[in-house]
Write a structure and sequence with these properties.
Blueprint: E1 3-4, H1 11-18, H2 22-28, E2 30-34, H3 36-44, E3 51-55, H4 62-73, E4 77-81, H5 83-90, E5 98-103, E6 119-124, H6 129-142, E7 147-150, H7 159-165, E8 174-177, H8 179-186, E9 192-196, E10 213-217, H9 226-231, E11 234-236, H10 249-265
Parallel strand pairs: 1-4, 3-4, 6-7, 6-10, 7-8, 9-10, 9-11
Antiparallel strand pairs: 2-5, 3-5
Length: about 270
């Protein structure tokens, strides 16, 4: 049964608001997602929130009704609230129509089936949540098997990363691991590791990519460490015709991913 929550002091409101901080996400094992499109993507992928916040103005929307039904059927709580509280939870003046509190989820390297896709994305020490979200969207678009986060990467369950993923967090498997563990797993089966690098003259379009292809993108500011580059089967470069020496990390990953996809489709 739907409850009406109108007080900022309500414990559930406080809990949801606190999930904007990494410490609280770690302690509770939960995270916050916002927006009708993102929560609908989650529902369609089989994930529903523990708590669903919405306003009276959106309660009759067919997609919100489906969310409410799904949450209550799963034993969660659907909470009608005010636009002000929804804004407080969101941290924005114009929050999405709904917000949800989800249990964190994830996969391990052993959970992955490398034969499930010919394209995999690997990001090393990725620090920007917008880049992480964009990489997830790219992974979804090209049918990548997953996104593997190596080393000290930004939290994929941060509000900013979840928002930037536009729902792809719920459709693309995400694994967090250290470099040595990833490399050991990778070399335990088929897989071509392709690094995006400025220290090569090999054009990314002049290479035949072997499936499954693991595209490795280094840290936004520092690139990938020398040892990581040496471990790659191939290093490739995206030509730059202007004054900039490189593309944004997420953009470069998308360019590479679509080149690999184009080869797969031929």
């Amino acid at each position: 049964m739907t409850r009406l929550v109108t007080a900022y002091s309500n414990p559930l409101v406080k809990h949801a608001r606190n999930l904007r901080e990494k410490r609280h996400r770690r302690e509770s094992g939960q995270f916050l997602a916002e927006g009708l499109r993102i929560l609908t993507e989650a529902r369609e992928s089989g994930r529903v929130p523990r708590l669903l916040f919405f306003t009276g103005a959106t309660a009759a929307h067919p997609l919100v009704v489906r969310l409410i039904d799904a949450v209550e059927a799963a034993g969660g709580e659907a909470l009608e609230t005010t636009p002000d509280i929804l804004s407080k939870l969101s941290g924005k003046d114009n929050p999405g129509a709904v917000m949800g509190v989800y249990d964190e989820f994830g996969a391990t390297l052993d959970d992955l089936d490398r034969d499930a896709s010919g394209i995999w994305l690997v990001a090393e020490r990725l620090r920007d949540p917008g880049n992480l979200g964009t990489m997830l969207r790219t992974g979804d678009a090209v049918g990548a098997g997953g996104l593997i986060l190596v080393g000290d990467c930004v939290d994929p369950f941060s509000v900013e990363a979840v928002r930037a993923s536009m729902g792809a967090l719920f459709t693309v498997p995400v694994v967090r691991c250290e470099w040595d563990a990833f490399l050991e797993w990778l070399r335990g089966g088929p897989g071509q590791l392709v690094g995006l690098s400025l220290d090569t003259e090999r054009d990314y379009r002049a290479v035949d990519y072997a499936a499954p292809t693991f595209l490795l993108t280094g840290n936004e500011a520092q690139g990938m460490p020398e040892g990581y580059a040496e471990a790659c089967d191939l290093l490739v470069k995206i030509p730059m015709l202007g004054r900039a020496d490189s593309l944004n990390a997420a953009v470069a990953t998308a360019v590479m991913a679509y080149e690999v996809l184009a080869q797969r489709q031929k």
